Amino acid sequence: MDRTRAAITHKPETCIYARFSKRLLAYVIDMIVSLILMFPLLLWYARGLFSDQSGTYLLGYGIFLFGGICSIRMLYLVVGWSILQGTVGCFITRIRVVTVQGKPVTFWVALARYLGLLVSTMLFGLGWIPIFLTSKHQGIHDLIASTVVCTEK
What we know:
Radius of gyration: 17 Å
Shape: elongated
Largest sheet: 3 strands, antiparallel
């Protein structure tokens, strides 16, 4: 997608902020896509757990599994947000992630948004509550990264 066209499409005064239901559906779709991307790693780990070397896999490779899962999820989201202005879930639900000025998200803004999303999710989802309370339907991760999620017309 042409980044210039996307920036023009989502000027702050024309942005229709995405509701929680659309964002949640996009999140669930993205979790499914992430699990598909993680499947080879999870399969490798599961096969090792049920082998003769299960102790090695459990104690030695557990941290690598966690790091791999976080890395795959981070790459999927950050690259999607920064290059395409959205992920597979965003495309299916017809929403886009842009800055509050309506510009495309840069890599560093997308990384800040991911880290905010990680914190929001780790807090038992409490970081999603501001979506109901803010006029632009921003979660904690959006407030941290100064982003909004717009619905495509």
